Each structure stands twice: as structure tokens, then as C-alpha cells.
Fold this sequence. Notes:
Helices cover 31% and strands 29% of the residues. Helix 1 (41-56) crosses helix 7, helix 10 crosses helix 12 (414-438) and helix 11 packs across helix 12. A six-stranded mixed β-sheet has the order 3-2-1-4-11-12. Strands 13, 14, 15, 18 and 21 form a five-stranded mixed β-sheet that branches. It is α+β, with helices and mostly antiparallel strands and 682 residues long. The chain is globular. Pfam families: Hydant_A_C, Hydant_A_N, Hydantoinase_A. It comes from Pigmentiphaga daeguensis. Residues 516-678 form the Acetophenone carboxylase-like C-terminal domain.
Amino acid sequence: MSGQQRVVGVDVGGTFTDLFVLDEADQSVAVVKVPSTRGEEAVGFMNGIARLDDAAGGAAGIATIIHGTTVGTNALLERKAARTGLITTRGFADVLEMRRRDRPHTWGLRGEYLPPISRDLRKEVDERVLADGSIHTEVDLDQVEACVRELLAQGCEAVCVFFINTYANPANEAAAVARVRELWPNDCVTSSAEVLPEIREFERVSTASLNAALQPVVGGYLRRLEGDLRERGFGGQLMIVQSNGGVMSRQTACELPVRTTLSGPAAGVIACAAIARAAGHPDVMTGDMGGTSFDVSLVVDGRVALAEQTSIAFGMVVRSPMIQIETIGAGGGSIAKVDAGGMLQVGPESAGSRPGPACYGHGNPYPTVTDANLLLGRIDAARPLGGGLLGTLDAELARAAIRAHVAEPLGLDVLEAAEAILTVANAKMAGALRLVSIEKGHDPRRFAYMPFGGGGGLHVCAMMRETGVETGIVPRYPGVTSALGCVMADLRHDAVRTINRGLHEVDFETLRALVGEFRERCDVHLASAGVAIASVREELFLDMLYQGQTHTVMVPVQADHLHAGAVAAAFEAAYRAEFGRLLPGIAVRIMNLRYARIGVRPKFDLRLLAPPADARPRPADTQRVHVNGAWMDVPRHARLELPVGTRVEGPAILEQPDTTVWLEPGFSATTDDHGNLILKPV
């Protein structure tokens, strides 16, 4: 590699940190994989950069680093976010705790909820803005100052200011935030009106509070990371992947860390969508199987599906555009055990990366999905995933764990028990694929299925069998797909404003002026990123509903078609597509205007990932695999050495450093001109 125009995508996972390197000068690519350091994610990141020093000239030659991070997600899930205070309108301190009167279990009468900001750190001040935007009570800034001093005395690192009805008029909140920023000792001050100027008080306070709680954690991590990179000679741009699949500058990520909460999985879906389009399959279901979870998403007509909000965990709602990803506890480290009713369960409890599956030999006594795959011969104990980064696996520890916790309780042979573990795990994962497709009105059989992550290739044929999918696409580097997605992602900035007017009450000239304001503001963010942009496009949506409804539909519109007739027609088309019918005679309302400005980054030809034209595969070895109740010798191929057009018939093992593909009997795999494996039933 020339090392002068390198773009590096980095994805930090629980077990491995993956780097995908594109040299834009000579159009070459490279993959680097190093162990992650739990709790010190920057260490694994820097170890990967150090490997680049050996491979291609070091950090000084990198033009851009795009980072998909789970630091924010992990901090929220593990309750390790910063100690945060809330300053709010008198009488509204408990909005964060009341939520939407929902409960963690549908039929449960009890449920614990631990709000991200405890009650003693939620302070009230006198102020009030009415729903029409008029100021009923001016904010008492002396009370605001007193609250700041109390929160600092209580050890808060960050603070969130949330006043009621600021979507209609943010004047009181803006004045309070200005006073807080004069007094607060760091930059970790969040205004709910700046983060989410949108109607619905719980969603706004939840999103803003989580943003505040993440500012010290994510901001500190990114500042340390950039400092370490600068010390190594890095002089380029550090970019961060957002949950919506776009990227933003490190500075913006420090201000709005809540937008990074599904950063890593989002990058993987972006890569899958591009790979599938290039392979001629615009409709694809993706399945990211890691050590703990199985993350599923849907790509329709080449476009990823975005959700308006998501829950990181029960009660922790983030309202910000995010790629729709459904997650279940079915990863390689998911623990299998027999419950009190005698039923075999797999997940959601996971052995994680430390101690990991029983076969890792780090002290976990319980069997996992990885242990079952190992015992059945689908993983070679001498060559586990990671290209030598993991030591050899211990099949006898896997056998002992499965025998003690599954085989004996169920009265099964140990191999039958291993097959049962995989059957249950496969059924759970196939259920997630059906959910994400059928629930949205799509027939999963007309989609291709693309697995990625370290464990996806071991279960690809099972997913195709279970769902009736006719085409499987295993990308060239499944284990580093999220890192590849970081390199491919475009810059993106979003804006939203509540309208809350009947369709025929809206002043569309004012609406068009608002779009112009959003356009200018987002262009400033794009320009500040300091990276090459090939073109700029925009997306515009209106959240609309019939009068009296609670939930909205997202209606795509064009900026030059913002008038009542075009908007009414667009709403009817979107509503009919969503629900199959209209409700004539009922007035229509526009709730919110949503805007996205997208800086399209230069793309590289995915055929760079294909095997070289002079590729010469080694003769296949054999691997002993338990298939259909019997042991048999199965050919084992070095997958990355297979030339374009190579066809392999199952049963077979296709092995590479970042994954293993188990090709079941009755399936074939062909290498296409983009380096993908295209699987078909025979």
C-alpha cells in the first residue's frame, strides 16, 4: 500500500477489534484483526493501528479513520454512564420515571425500572411555557444557579436541562442553558431543545438525559483516542458512525453521543446493503451473529429501514433516526441449559468473550452454541476464529459441559444434545428473521439472506432452510463487515421540528423556509468534517396521522413539492402502504418535519474484494464432521483462495481467519466476481 491516502474503518467488538483498510491511491484493501480489551476499548484500537505500522507505513499515512463504537451502548446497558443531574420545570421531575406507563413484561404486575438519573439529582425550577408557545412564567435564573451548585456538590459530571413545551418555544430553556454553561466546569451540558426539538415530553427528556449521561463517557473516550492517534503521527480526520448509518465528526459525536448508540451494528447493515446491491440482490435480510447476540435487519430495494426511535433497554428510549435492528440473545457464546420445566433453552444469558464458551478453558462450566459447533466438528479445535489470535479450543471441555448440563438432564447422547442446542438456537434466529420481515408485510422467501459476524457462516444454511430463502450471500470478510461498513458510510446530519397543525392549517411557505434553514445548518456540519464528499443529497419526511390517532407514519416528500395537494397525496400513499386502507372523512395532521442532509462519500469498486485473477486454491483438506447422525470426512477449503466461479458442493467446510462457513448437504456455494459466496439449494 502506498500509505498516503488510506481510509481505515474500525469496529470494536467484545472479542475482536476489526480494521478494514482501503488505499484510495492504488485501490488496494487489507484486513487487520486484533483482540479487544474489555473496558479499555482504545487499547485494542491502538493495537490494530500498530499492526498497520508494520503493514503500511503507520498512522501518519492515514487520511481518515471511521470508527463504529459500542462504548455508549455498553455504558448504558451496564449502567456505567456518568453521574448526571436534571434541571426541569417544577412538577415535571418524574416524567423520566413515569415513561409511557409501560412495563418490562406484558403480563407482569411488577417490574423494576432504574432511571438514568436518580430522583435526588432531578431538580425543579419555576418556569412555564404553554403548548401554544406563549410564556406563562419566565424562568427563575437564580433558582437555576442554585440547582447547578447543588448538582456539582452532589458529584455530577454532566447535566441535562429539560423544560416542558420547549418544542413550541425554547426561550426559557435557552436562557437557563446559557446560565448553566457559564457555571458548569466542563462542556457536558445538554439542552433537550437542542437535542430533540420535538413534541412528546418523555421521549425528549429520555433522549436528552441519555445524551447528557454519555457525554463524559463517549467524549472522554474519543478525546483520549484522538490524542493517542495524534501521538502516533495521525494527522487526518477521525469520524464516528451514527446509529442511522451515516458518519459525523468526532466533535459532533462528543456533543451528541446518543446518536452513536447502535453505531457498530448500523455500519454492518450499511455494508451488507451495498454488497447485496452489487451482487444483484436489492432485497436482503441481514443477520449479524457475534458472541452474545444475533442482530437482524431488513434492506428493501437497496435501502435500509430507519426507525424513529428505539429502546436501548427497558425504559431507556432514544428518539433519533436509527437503522431498524432487532436483537435476540443467540450468539456463539449463548448459554444452553435445561429449565425447571425440562425445556432446553439457549440464551439470552451469554458467556461473553471472558470467560467465553467452555471450550476456551477460562472457567465457564456451561455449554454454549460454540461448544456445540465444536463438538460436532464444524469448528476445527486447532484453528478457531481469529486467524491464530485465539489459542486452540478444548473439545473435551465442551463435551463435559454439554453432557452435564444438557445431555444428562434430557436423557440424550452428548452428540444428540449438541444437535439439540443448535436446533433451538437456529429456531430462535429464524424466528427473528421472520419477525423483521413478515411483521413489515414482506415474504422472507423473496429476500436473499446475508450472514455476517464471526458466527453467521456456521448457520447460514440452517437459516435458509428454516425461512425458505433461496439465496444466501456470504460476504468476502464476514467477520469484519462492520469495519467495511465504516469505510462505505456517508456523512449524514438530521434535523427535526414539531409542526403540530392540521394539513390545511399549515403555512407551507414557512415550511419551505424551515427546510432552507435546516439545509444551511446541516451544510455547516458537513463542511466541518473535513473529508472528501462526492455529492450532497437530502431526504425530507413529514410525520403525519389522522386526527385523533396517537402514532404517526413517516411520509417522504420532495422539498419542491411542499404544498397541500402533493402532501395529501403522499400521505395517502404512505398510509395505504403501511395499513392497506385509508380513513376517508377524517382530518389529517402534520406532527413533525424531519430533514436529513447526506454527504455522499466517494465509493470504491467492491470487485476489489474478489480473489486475484491468478488465484490458485490449495487442494482441499478433510475435516471430520457429525452430519445427519453419523461422522463423515468432509472437504475443507481455504475460502479466500477460491477463484471466481469456483463451485463447491455440500457438505463442505469453507474456512477463513474471520469465520467458518458450514455448507450443509443439499447446498452449493459459488464464488462471484465480488468475492462473495452465493449459496443455493441444490
